Structure formats: structure tokens, C-alpha cells
């Protein structure tokens, strides 16, 4: 019987929240007796925004803001019979606020 894999990609602005969410998913998977890999830290993406402080007079006076998006990947290996139950259980779990969850079944 071949095993299918579920890739769970987590995104958040705060690294502490994303680590807590990844730990919660790994504990939930171990509770369901599912083989896990991860959490694997993916590259952090940075977005820098430049805004003029004074629109009319001081064009050279600018202010820069930065937002970082931290990402983690958790891979679950399971049998096709358990796939639907595990994905529903993970999608219904209470994750910290500000954490985005993407589930990909392959």
C-alpha cells in the first residue's frame, strides 16, 4: 500500500506564533500515529515599503517600513484511508491568530 503525503505550509509575521502552530500540528499528527517530517524552516520573505514623510516640500525625507513573512513546512506521510480524517482534523484545529495554513495533498 503506497503512502500519500500531505504538505502543510504555514505563514506568519511573528516567528513565535508560527513555531507554536507547527509544534501543535506535529503533536496532533503524533497523536494520530502519522509519520511526520519537519517543521522545516523555509526562507523568510521581506517586503520593504518607502513612504514620503512630507509630500509637498521635503521630497528627500522618506520613511521605510519592513514586514517579514516567516514560513514553515510540515510533511505528513499517511495511508490514503486516513487522509481525509487527518486533513479535517488539522484544518479544524485552533491555531494562533495570524497564522495562515495551506494544505496540499500529493
From TrEMBL:
Q: Which keywords fit this entry according to its UniProt record? A: Ribonucleoprotein, Ribosomal protein
**Physiological role:** Involved in the binding of tRNA to the ribosomes.
Domain of life from the UniProt record: Bacteria
Coiled coil regions, renumbered to chain: none
What is this protein's record name? Small ribosomal subunit protein uS10
Q: Name one Pfam family in it.
A: Ribosomal_S10
- Matching HAMAP family, A to Z? Ribosomal_uS10 (MF_00508)
Q: Does the keyword Signal apply?
A: no
Q: Which Gene3D superfamilies match?
A: Ribosomal protein S10 domain
InterPro entries named in the record: Ribosomal_uS10, Ribosomal_uS10_CS, Ribosomal_uS10_dom, Ribosomal_uS10_dom_sf
Amino acid at each position: 500500500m503506497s503512502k500519500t503525503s500531505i504538505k502543510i505550509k504555514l505563514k506568519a509575521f511573528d516567528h513565535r506564533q508560527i513555531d507554536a502552530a507547527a509544534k501543535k500540528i506535529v503533536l496532533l499528527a503524533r497523536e494520530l500515529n502519522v509519520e511526520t517530517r519537519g517543521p522545516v524552516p523555509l526562507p523568510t520573505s521581506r517586503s520593504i515599503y518607502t513612504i514620503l514623510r512630507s509630500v509637498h516640500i521635503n521630497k528627500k525625507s522618506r520613511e521605510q517600513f519592513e514586514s517579514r513573512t516567516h514560513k514553515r513546512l510540515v510533511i505528513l506521510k499517511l495511508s490514503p484511508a486516513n487522509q481525509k480524517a487527518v486533513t479535517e482534523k488539522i484544518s479544524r484545529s485552533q491555531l494562533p491568530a495570524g497564522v495562515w495554513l495551506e494544505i496540499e495533498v500529493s
